[in-house]
Every structure is written in structure tokens, then in C-alpha cells.
Amino acid sequence: MKPINCFIVYDDTVQAEITIENLLQSELVNAVYLLSKRENIQVNEKCFPILIDSLYSSNTIRKIAEKSDTPYSLVYLKNTPLHLGQFALERFFQIAQDTKAGMVYSDYYQVSGGVRSKLPLIDYQTGSVRDDFNFGSVLFFNAEVLKQASAQMNENFLHAGLYDARLRISQKAELVHIDEYLYSEVESDNRKSGEKLFDYVDPKNRQRQLEMEHACTEHLKNIGAYLKPQFKTILFDENNFEVEASVIIPVKNRATTIEDAVRSALTQKTSFPFNVIVVDNHSTDGTSEIVEKLAKEDSRVRHIIPQREDLGIGGCWNVAVHSPFCGKFSVQLDSDDVYQDENTLQIMVNAFYEQNCGMVIGSYTITDFEMNVIPPGLIDHREWTPENGRNNALRINGLGAPRAFYTPLLRKIKVPDSNYGEDYALGLYFSREYQIGRIFQSVYLCRRWRDNSDAELDIVTLNTYNHYKDKIRTIEIKARQQINKLS
């Protein structure tokens, strides 16, 4: 018997025939199975239909596993034509054999608007547990490992079946990335990276999110990284602070937006004293002069220019938090953004005492530069629950905004000196021991404009950011495994 069975989506006859022809040209292919929601589709003698409910369901994974009677199974997830590179299947087969991997995936060419471009992927690691990890559309499974994973799947997910299978496979064998461009696919989603960020908050995806959380939580339990909802109590009894709260604004070259940010902080109405610490990271566009003017107008504005010139956003946060001006609570405000209204700071600080937490995360509304609400509007991360939030946090790529911290704890932990993901790392670290308080009403306006750090990312930058967050998760999972071993 030839060593590979292939499974492809069958939506359109023309599309399917092109893909089938490409696959059957290889001497390694035993049979092609057509995954379709349609009954009575016309096939040839080397193609066999499989009726499915959803491409990503648990039932579909079980059906694929059942028909995986060859050593390897190739699954193609798109309904556009697949064009394999020279000896691509031979390469998948060779590396799968050499590494004994549970699954192999490769870089690929993306065809959009008739233009072919390279789409490199990143290596899978322990922390690559987010459900949107990009493997490309060609997945090459060790059939025996896939069967073992399928046999252990005890849920009937409609959306999270493939995710569940992938996590279970990773518990048994490596997921190996081939740094070679082995196929071409047509891309049908041509939105910018910044426009795809918030797909998960679409109400129609709510059931999908719940399924993904359940699958991820089970995975964490299986690998010894699940944390029970038990948290340390905080007394908030350190009182050697001049003010109750500090709004912290790191900034570099944001002359267009910095005054809006500072003034939105200064207009806060609170029952306690607060200040605004602007850490100006050696701006050269007039930002420094604007902040200096605001500091002269209002003594609550503390303008700090770091002595060091090698700091990222996280490093600027450390400068603010460790300065003598910092209050008992440190509250985020990005230099691009503004608070929702004059009540934000009071609401954020109240949450510390009401929910007894080391960190508080609010909810925000997406607006344009003129602060008109734009889709998707409110981002409230309601997937967070006090019972399972810190486990589910390992699955998603962000926790929300604005973020606030009990300063004595933040001074002990320190902020990673990064320009991206430092807030996410802090959220995971804090949640390891302390409850994270949540505010589900909008208290913050996040302005989307051309200079946003994540408005439109090239693939190299996007991969760098995703690899960094996966590494953060890897470290966190290992730390949680150690906690459970010692408990």
C-alpha cells in the first residue's frame, strides 16, 4: 500500500479536480478522501466521499482517523486549489519519518490578487497553545498518533475538534516545522493584520470560543499546567506613597496624540490624589516640548526622560513604577489613546479593593482618530471568568485594556523590557498567584490610526510578535508545572 491518504475539502468540483490531480501525480498517494457537507457527490475510483458536519468538528477528526489506514495522512484545509512544490510530498514524508513527528507543517507561498509571495511560519513550542496558531493549510499527520489522539477525544466539538486533536497530538509527539516553501495556496481573506485582530469578539464566534477554552483547559490538565481557582489575599497596607494612583504614559514621538492622552488623564474625577507620569523616551518630534508645557500648567504631570537610551515600552514602565512619584496603583494609558470619561481612574482603583486583586483589566472601545466608534466597537473579553480566566489566558493573545497594577507587586515582578507583549506577560505572571480583576464596561478609547503598532504588520514582524508571545506562554506553562509538582 502507498503510504499517504489525503483528505481535502470538496466544495467546488473545479477546485477539487485541480487539487486531486496535483495529489494523484505523486506515487506516494494511496487515496484521496473528499470532505463534504453534500451527499451523493460524483467521484472517481481513487476518490472517496466522507460526509461531515463541519471541517473542524470532533466527528470529522474521528472520520479522518478511521480512514487513516496508511502510515501518514495529509489534510488540506482550504477550498481553493492546492499546488504542491517539486517533490513536496516526498519531503513531508521524509521529514515525518526522520523526526517521528506527530504532525509536520511547512512554509508556503500565498497567492493573492495573482501575486505570489512567501509566507514563512514559526516553530511550534510548548507555549504554542493559542487556537489561532498558523500551521498553513497542509497538515501532514503520523496516522498512528492521529488515531491515538482521536481515541482520547471525549467531546463532540463542532468548532474545536481539530484544535483538540492538535493539542492531544502535541502531548505524544513533536509538531515539526519545515522551513521550506512546499506548496502554494490562494488566499481568500485579504484583510490587513490589524483588521483580523478582533475576529474572536464577533458574537457569532461565542460558541467557538467556549469550545476552544474547554479543549485548552483539558490540555493544561493533561500536561500538569492547570491552576485551580485559589488565590493569595492582598491587604493593600503599604502606605508610603504620595498619591493613591499614577497614570503611566510611556511615549516616543507621538506629538500628534500625546496632549489628548495627558489631558484625558488630568480630567479624571477621583476621591483620592493622583498624578500622571509621562516617561518620554527621548522623543525628537516635539513630543517633549508638549509634555513640558503640560507639566508647567499642572503640577500633577511628572515628565521623566530616562537616563538610559536603550529602553522599550516595558523599560519605560519600570522607570515610572520605580520612581518616587509613583502611586500605590499604576494605571495604563497609551500615548495614542484616551480614557472613556472622567470616571475611569476611580473605577479602576475601586476594582482593586472590591475584587481583591493584584491587577485590574478594563474594557475598551475601538474608535477612529476622531474618536468615532468603529467596528467591532466594544472589546470586553467576557470569556474571562474568575474560576478559569488564568488558564484560558494561555489560549488567547491578549487580555484587554486598560491595565492597572498594585505597585508594590509590580516593583517585585518587574516589567519585561519589550515593545510588544510585555503587558500580556505581566497578566500571566500576576494570574499565577493573584486574582485579576475585570471591568466589563468600556472605560477606555483605543484609537486605530496609521501609526498604531499593530495596524498593519508584515509577516516577519507578525511572526516575531507571535513567537515572543508563544515563548512567554512556554515559560509560564513550565512555571505552572513546577508549582503543581511542589503542591
In the CATH hierarchy, what is the superfamily of the largest domain?
Spore Coat Polysaccharide Biosynthesis Protein SpsA, Chain A
What would CATH call the class of the largest domain? Alpha Beta
Tell me the span between the first and last alpha carbons.
Answer: 51 Å
Number of domains: 2
What does this structure look like?
There is one protein chain. The protein contains 15 helices and 18 strands. With 487 residues, the chain is of the alpha/beta class. The protein folds into two domains: 187 residues, Spore Coat Polysaccharide Biosynthesis Protein SpsA, Chain A; 224 residues, Alpha-Beta Complex (Spore Coat Polysaccharide Biosynthesis Protein SpsA, Chain A), CATH 3.90.550.10. Helix 2 packs across helix 5 and helix 14 packs parallel to helix 15. The longest helix has 28 residues. It is elongated.
Task: Using brief descriptors, characterize the structure shown.
nine-stranded mixed beta sheet, 487 residues, alpha/beta, Spore Coat Polysaccharide Biosynthesis Protein SpsA, Chain A, 2 domains, 24% strand
